[in-house]
Amino acid sequence: MKRSLFNTSILVFIFSVVFINTPLYTQEFLYGDQLPDAPELSKRGDYTIGVRTMHLTNKNQIDIINSKEGKDPIYDRPLTVEIWYPANSSDKNEIVTYNEVMGTRGDTLRPIIPFTFKGRAIRDAKPNSSAGKYPLIVVAHGYVGSRYLMTYLTENLASKGYVVVSIDHTDSTFKDANVFQSTLLNRAKDIRFVVDQIANLGLADSKDSLSGLIDSENIGIIGYSMGGYGVLNVGGAGYSDGLGQFFGGMTGGSSAISTLLASNEEYQKQNDPRIKAVVAFAPWGMERGVWDAQGLKGLTKPTLFIAGSQDDISGYEKGIKAIYDGATNADRYLLTYKNARHNVAANPPPTESLAPGLHIDEYYRYADSSWDQRKINNVNQHFVTAFLGSLLKNEDHSKFLNIPENSNDKDWPGFKPRSSTGMELLHQKTTN
After folding, report:
1. What is the pLDDT of residue 11?
2. Where are the domains of the chain?
3. pLDDT on residue 89
4. Which end is more exposed in the chain, N or C (fewer Cβ atoms within 10 Å of the end residue's Cβ)?
5. Which stretch of DSSP H or E encloses residue 79?
6. 2-428 classified as CATH 3.40.50.1820
7. Given this model, what pLDDT does residue 92 score?
């Protein structure tokens, strides 16, 4: 009898696959989809999402690349952004193709290689304004990177009722990477400019399709690596005088970065009350003297830091954790992936990065040496959702944030049994 049932099952399986052509898995796994052990809040939200590309121009900026002997020419700085938003569509099987590249411009060992990957959005779909206004999230990539580096997160947040804008930082992308002083100067300025531009497009009298869609009083900013360097500055952590001196040495005495230093009274007036939350993935700079105690005390926005304990780019104990420890005026969290290195924010490695003969950095631009990047993506979705939802939507996610520090000691709330190992979540409230 048992053998008969077994044989019948095999026949049904073969018939369904071969003759009916019914796949075992009805949905292709795309970046950001849930693994079987994904935590609770990593699930996509109820909104179908649209995506559009927009070109912005920040006029009359310092052209630091062409500065000579401290003389700073002016130019109009171009910025391309990608915008994800709740869409007015009943199509739940939305698919979009993103055009991306690997490589780094100017490096003969890493030529530019175009590739594509799929996401879950509808290109240029009509926005869904029926639910009212949505909080705004602005995302900044690292050096080098692109606006598509974290689509697993940008799509996920948009599906939960956010307007999410990711920046291509000029002189800092795979396609146009240039001298580092441009990134040092422009990262925070780009973020601030995009926040203002998109908030204005969301005003009721705007002629843009974002009109009336954005709650500009509830804004979050997310940055990875040099993007983390930028969002912390926008959040109130002014750079040190030491960075000002270093930058001047790089640019022949230019004082262009002085407006971002903690000691500058003009910088201290730039606090933006609309920004309610900061997420900093592996923020760069502490080990290079970018911040001091004075600058870190200026960070007053609630902040979620996310890091790998073996980060060899930004550093951990003397890098990211030192920033976390020093930001005593902020209510802050530090999520640590034990044994992970720097790549705790990006999409998984594209298939094209596995091709024989490519420089290993094409793979390690995305991959971690110890963790499955898809697992990291799901955990990031979970905690960023909990953190931003608490601050921008008044959602109660305390059970996911106020948890045991060490995930090896006890299963964390929202995680499936035995799936939350290898992580640590620290929490410090402001000392004020």
Report:
1. 39
2. 2-428
3. 83
4. N
5. strand 74-86
6. yes
7. 66
pLDDT score, position 20: 38
Provide the pairing of β-strand 332-337 with 303-308.
Answer: parallel
Token pair, residue 46, equals 């109820």
All residue ranges of the chain with pLDDT < 70 are 1-27, 92, 106
Residue 225 CB contacts under 8 Å (≥ 6 apart), including other chains: 141, 142, 143, 145, 281, 282, 283, 284, 313, 314, 342, 345
CA distance 40 to 30: 18
- Residues 358-395 as b or e (16 or more Cβ within 10 Å = b): bbeebbebbbbeebebbbbbbbbbbbbbbbbbbbbbee
> Which letter does DSSP use for residue 161 in this model?
T
The pLDDT, as a whole number, for residue 86 is 97
Helix, strand, coil tally for the chain in percent (to 5)? 30, 25, 45
| Alpha carbons 312 and 314: distance in angstroms, whole number | 6
Residues 6+ apart with CB under 8 A from 183: 143, 169, 171, 172, 226
Residue 154 amino acid letter: T
Handedness of CA 101, 103, 108, 111 (dihedral sign): negative
Phi/psi region, residue 73 (left: phi>0; alpha: psi -120 to 50; beta: rest), is: beta
Q: How far is C-alpha 272 from the chain's CA centre?
A: 20
Q: Tell me if 226 sits within 8 A of 284, measured CB to CB.
A: yes
